[in-house]
Amino acid sequence: MIFNEEFETLPREALEAIQLRRLQALCERLYALVPFYRRKFDEAGLKPGDIKSLNDLPRLPFTTKQDLRDNYPFGLFAVPMEQVVRIHASSGTTGKPTVVGYTQRDIKTWAELMARTLAAAGVQRGDIVHNAYGYGLFTGGLGFHYGIEYLGASVIPVSGGNTKRQIMLLQDFGPTVITCTPSFSLHLYDVAKDMGVDFANLRLRVGIFGAEPWSEAMRAEIERKLGIDALDIYGLSEIMGPGVSIECLEAKNGLHMFEDHFLPEIIDPNTLEPLPPGQPGELVITTLTKEAFPVLRYRTRDISVLNPEPCKCGRTLVRMGRIQGRSDDMLIIRGVNVFPSQIEAVLMEVRGVEPHYQIVVDRVGQMDTLEVRVEVDETTFSDEVRQLQHLEKKIEHNIKDYLGVSAKVRLVEPRSIPRSEGKAQRVIDNRKK
Ligand code: DLL
Question: Is 202 helix (H, G, I), strand (E, B) or coil?
Answer without folding.
Answer: coil
